[in-house]
Design goal:
The protein has 385 residues and is of the alpha/beta class. The chain is built from twelve helices and 14 strands. The strands form four sheets. An eight-stranded parallel beta barrel has the order 1-2-5-6-7-9-11-12, surrounded by five helices. It has a two-stranded antiparallel sheet with strand order 3-4. The chain has a two-stranded parallel ribbon with strand order 8-10. Helix 5 runs parallel beside helix 7 and helix 11 runs parallel beside helix 12. The chain is globular. The protein starts with 10 loop residues before the first strand and ends in a 10-residue tail after the last helix. The relative contact order is 0.14.
Length: 385
């Protein structure tokens, strides 16, 4: 039984920090939209009250680099100071889909500028003191390559250039890791991407299904030098692999989502085992969650599968509830009820409503995992539904 000890808590909370531009050109800023940028101290304290001491959060590159090589840290420092004051450990996302408007994402300058920004951020965090930091330099390279380079869902709005964008983002990430480690050799590096399963709808589509399924590994393969070694990736580029998993991460080749009750559905624990077998790196569930009343039951499923994978010797370091706050939807600003905590508006003095059923499920699973970590087995009954 692997005993997770990398993070300060096995359960993490992730703050949605996307800053990309939509098709209509509007830039999103989810840290501002959820008021987390203003309420970081209160939000971090609330996480601690729920037993969550490790978090995912993000920097907003487009706000910080006001001109090439000129950095204004005023949007980040209050969050960094709040994390220190509240005693929480943070995995900092440095590039969560958004970049300064004066940069061409396809250019060499993009790689150089981001690496310089990553190094500057790492020096700032180092100089502020504290324990060894964690960074996710570029979030979801494979997903971003699909959404921004293959289907044109968001910027850079390209189509049929997914492989090209994936290589450019991997090149950017590898350069950033090198800069971070020069600035602070203590830094731990994680890269998160979805794990998926694709099943052929017909025998004729079996080859396409397997090609799509294996594409989930392309970014990690580039980062670790297994694919496109000319990009500079090595096995040491990352320390942990973050796997993102939601209810729609398995589908047929015609696009239909595979339900968990379907025989074609692969248990999440199998996907975890396969990913670990491929890379031999510790894993953590970097994103998972559901919307509305499905939140509690989904966490019970994920935790149960993580327990199974732990029993099979997979070194799993944690489960991140993501997003841990309700947020306005990317496309239409609708209220997405995904969080442990709700919206904070001007009428409630920054207080966020707790989703009680998810909080109860979280407490149950925390006790269950704590028992596993302490004794190697859990006396707990089956997960709450």
């Amino acid at each position: 039984m692997h005993t997770p000890r990398v993070f300060d808590s096995f359960f993490l909370g992730g703050f949605e920090c996307s800053t990309h531009r939509r098709k209509d050109g509007r830039r999103l800023d989810l840290l501002a939209a959820t008021r987390h940028d203003q309420l970081a101290a209160e939000d971090y304290q609330a996480m601690r009250e729920h037993g969550i001491r490790t978090l995912r959060d993000g920097l907003r590159w487009h706000l910080i680099e006001t001109a090439p090589g000129r950095y204004d840290w005023s949007s980040f420092l209050p969050m960094l100071h709040a994390a220190r004051a509240q005693g929480v450990q943070v995995i900092w996302d440095l590039l969560h889909y958004g970049w300064p408007d004066d940069l061409d994402i396809w250019s060499g300058a993009f790689v150089e500028r981001f690496a310089a920004f990553a190094g500057a951020a790492a020096r700032l965090v180092r100089d502020e003191g504290g324990a060894a930091p964690f960074y996710c330099p570029v979030n979801e390279i494979s997903y971003w390559a699909w959404a921004g380079g293959e289907t044109g869902m968001f910027w850079p709005l390209a189509k049929k250039r997914g492989d090209e964008l994936k290589q450019q983002l991997a090149r950017t990430a590898i350069a950033a890791v090198a800069a971070i480690r020069v600035a602070d050799p203590r830094a731990r590096i994680v890269f998160a991407d979805p794990v998926i399963n694709v099943v052929a709808q017909t025998p004729a589509s079996a080859e396409d299904a397997e090609r799509m399924r294996l594409a989930q590994y392309a970014a990690w393969d580039m980062l670790t030098g297994r694919q496109a070694p000319e990009l500079g990736g090595t096995a040491d580029t990352l320390d942990l692999i973050g796997v993102n998993y939601y209810s729609d991460n398995q589908w047929l080749t015609n696009g239909t989502t595979i339900a968990r009750a379907d025989r074609a559905y692969r248990p999440f624990s199998e996907l975890l085992r396969e990913t670990y077998a491929r890379y031999g790196k510790p894993l953590f569930v970097a994103e998972t969650g559901a919307e509305g009343e499905a939140r509690s039951e989904w966490l019970a499923y994920i935790a149960g599968e993580v327990v199974r994978a732990l029993g099979d010797g997979v070194p799993l370091e944690g489960i991140c509830l993501y997003p841990v706050l309700d947020y306005p939807g990317w496309i239409n600003d609708r209220h997405c009820e995904t969080g442990l905590l709700g919206f904070a508006d001007e009428n409630n003095n920054g207080q966020r409503e707790v989703h009680r059923e998810l909080a109860r499920q979280l407490a149950f699973q925390q006790s269950r995992i704590d028992a596993l970590r302490t004794t190697g087995h859990s006396p707990m009954p089956a997960p709450l539904a």
